[in-house]
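Researcher: Next entry in the queue.
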Amino acid sequence: MQLSKDKHRRIMHTGRIYTKKGKYHLMLPLDSNMCLLNKFNCISTSYKGFTLVEVIVVAVIVAILSITAGMMYRGYVEEARLNTANNTAAAAATFLHTAINMGENVGDYPNLNGNGQWTINLSSGSQSIFKCPKKVILTLDHTNYTVKAIYNGIESETYKYNEQ
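Model: Structure for this entry, 164 residues:
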């Protein structure tokens, strides 16, 4: 049974089911990106690329993800800087407390700028050295016995190094 082109087009656009020798064929309406093969002919459309809307949607999604990732990264970096400043100040306070217990006069200890160091001569003849990390500024307040660190503009908590 041969169908005319008009009848074939009508069947394809309406989505009707027809039989031929006991077999069922479903003819669906054509999508613009679909090729339908059947016994009569091949109706195809060529798909040449992405539409402008698809490209814009992908660009917007990538931009949103980039902004979110950048904000999260910035938060992690600032948290790491704060932890570095706090750890340095705490270590300096512990060092100064040890120096006081060893009989050192910490009033002579200067503020440290990155790569500076303090030294204590121990009774065993060895030395204990505190080295200030790069980009860290340690400030001492000898009247209140406190030490504070600043790392890349982020200030640490204030640590006491001598309990009065």
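Model: The chain has two helices and eleven strands.
Researcher: Noted, moving on.
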